Amino acid sequence: MKNLHDVTIQQQKKEAKKETMNSMNDVFTDEVLRELFPTNRADDFFEALFGDANEGAYDISLSFQGHDEQSNSLHFNLDLHERPGRCLACNLTSGLPEVFSRHKVIDIEGLVTDVEKKLDGKAKCGAWKLGRTQQPEKSLHSIPLQIDLA
Fold first, then answer.
1. How far apart are CA 21 and CA 6, in angstroms?
2. pTM of the model as a whole
3. 25-63 confidence digits (pLDDT tens)
4. pLDDT 10s digits, 78-107
């Protein structure tokens, strides 16, 4: 049988963890997201891919979707915004999770390391995975990024 002191300490730890995780929205502000994934990274990606940044059909930004307490994971999206005069077609974006997961310019591994730095000791990043491309709007496709926390 647990004593009252042990139960109280466990409850306090749970509350502290919950409070820490609820503050994730305060950590991942728009400014921090732009710092983690600078706007010029899309140009660098297309420069490496096509030899000309102007050949790209979309810009890429990072958005924070929240913290899932049950799975203890952070959820982000790599949002692909159609460039003016370009076509953001599903056949162009459906294979991107596989490409992004290993491309040196996109550097998801480095992004996860930088996310952990922003957590400032509140949690450690573990495994990560990119989900299937989604199309919330005609001119916006999103690739989910899930980062498990340890």
1. 23
2. 0.82
3. 889 999 999 999 999 999 999 999 999 999 999 999 999
4. 999 999 999 888 767 888 999 999 999 999
